[in-house]
Amino acid sequence: MEKLILIKYGELTTKKGNRNQFINKLSENIKINGKIIKKRDRMYIIPNNFDETINKLKKVFGLQGIVVAYKVNTNTEDIKNGVLEVLKNENFKTFKVETKRANKNFEIKSMDFNNLIGGLVLKNFDCKVDVHNPDVIVHIEIREDTYIYTNEIKGSGGYPVGIQGKGILMLSGGIDSPVAGYLALKRGIDIDCLYFDSPPHTSIEAKNKVIELANILNEYSGNIKLLVVPFTKLQEAIYKNVPSEYNITILRRMMYRIATNISNKYKVLINGESIGQVASQTLTSINVINSVTNFPVIRPVACLDKLEIIEIAKKIGTYETSILPFEDCCTIFVPKHPVINPKLDKCLEYEKFNYQELIDECIDNIEVITNFNKDFKDLL
Ligand code: ATP
Ligand code: MG
Questions:
Q1: Does one domain contain both 195 and 303?
Q2: Which of 119, 154, 189 is the last residue of a domain?
């Protein structure tokens, strides 16, 4: 009896045409030590280390289910022995058997086989059948070989990262943008991150925090780059030239311009805006800010409540880092009364200073970080 990991794909693979692409991308994304066998409707993994591999697989998008299965030859005797062997390690009082017979050459029908194996289990263990809420379900998948397993671990769902190409995530140190990044990755968008850094107005800790967040997101991707934009001069120019109530509006228009300027490698811009959360995220603000670009922008958390965003942040492991107290560049110089319904003509009037040169300077001096500092927490 051979022990292996059996992977169930998302339902998406049932779409015609993209199945092979989906499977290939998925196996590319599964970076584990061991052997991967790709099949049309399942993937089999023979890992060097089971626990380590399962923990990694839980963070791979495009997987519906992960099970540790035992492979036996497809004949009644071997299956019976296999089931007894598997159940020896289980602690249960009630059970049911679920047979799936994909191999129609196997002569016994699924229902009859359930009964046959059920009888065997009753005879060998002190237990009862419970079809509604059993302690353990004995799954028997009869294919060319037969796979026996009990527990199924829920996969992360979604599409394999990268199947949709690449996007650029505006990543701040807050709660929302890492969640937006996670949700984009889950839809199959590979991401790089873009952080606007304004030293000395923002501290090195604030930057390290963003590095750490990119590092956590990278566990779901594996090839994230963090682009750090030196934003200080442009930000100072905004505060010098723009009336304070429009500071944030213009600041965000500049961020969008810079993101658009570096966008030739990317198909979409992603950010953590949530409708109505702050003055710059009213629909009027979003409209005026977004009007600097034709580039598509997606806002995965736009329609979520803050509490719903926090729930996801906790689940994916970014929350604890996000709530560390270091300021980001939007929270310093925050005006007392930011405009809630900004006017486009006013923005154009306030942008009469020479910002293009400063934007070019920002872009020319972007710092690219790929080697994330895994010991960031130790520095605090
Ligand atoms: P977050 O919790 O993600 O920081 P927020 O609620 O604080 O968001 P804002 O500060 O208005 O909202 O920012 C809205 C979005 O703009 C952020 O979610 C992020 O995508 C982007 N953003 C804001 N500040 C920065 C920054 N310094 N660098 C990169 N992106 C930023
Ligand atoms: Mg923020």
A1: yes
A2: 154
The total number of structural domains in the chain stands at 2
- Whole domain around residue 244: which residue ranges? 166-379
Pocket mutation for ligand 1, best pick of 177, 193, 305, 321 (most atoms within 8 Å of C-beta): 177
Q: How many helices (H) and strands (E) does the chain have?
A: 14, 15
* Ligand 2 center–CA 380 separation, angstroms: 20
On the question of a cis peptide bond just before residue 296, with omega within 30 degrees of 0, the verdict is no
pLDDT tens, N- to C-terminus, the chain (380 residues): 899 999 998 766 556 678 888 999 999 999 888 999 998 888 999 999 999 999 999 999 999 999 999 999 999 999 999 999 999 989 999 999 999 999 999 999 999 999 999 999 999 999 999 999 999 999 999 999 999 999 899 999 999 999 999 999 999 999 999 999 999 999 999 999 999 999 998 889 999 999 999 999 999 998 899 999 999 999 999 999 999 999 999 999 999 999 999 988 899 999 999 998 777 788 999 999 999 999 999 999 999 999 999 999 999 999 999 999 877 666 667 777 888 899 999 999 999 999 999 999 999 999 999 876 554 444 43
Ligand 1 pocket: which of 175, 176, 211 to mutate (most atoms within 8 A of CB):
176
Counting from 1 in the atom list of ligand 1, the atom nearest the Cα of 278 is 11
pTM of the model: 0.90
Side-chain-side CA neighbours of residue 97 (13 Å): 27
**Do residues 144 and 187 both lie within one domain?**
no
CATH of the domain at 141: 3.30.2130.30
* Element (DSSP H or E) covering residue 56: helix 50-57
Q: 16 burial class (0-12, 13-18, 19+ CB within 10 angstroms)?
A: exposed
The reply to whether 159 falls in a domain is no
Same domain flag for 144 and 174: no
For residues 183 and 275, membership in a common domain is answered with yes
DSSP labels, 105-162: TS-S-HHHHHHHHHHHHHHHSS-EE-SSS-SEEEEEEESSEEEEE--EEEEEES--TT
* The domain boundary residue, chosen from 98, 123, 154: 154
**Which amino acid makes up residue 177?**
S
Same domain, 225 and 149: no
Q: Is 302 within a domain?
A: yes
Determine which residue's CA is closest to atom 24 belonging to ligand 1. Answer: 172
* Residues 102 and 171 grouped into a single domain: no
Are residue 226 and residue 333 in the same domain, yes or no? yes
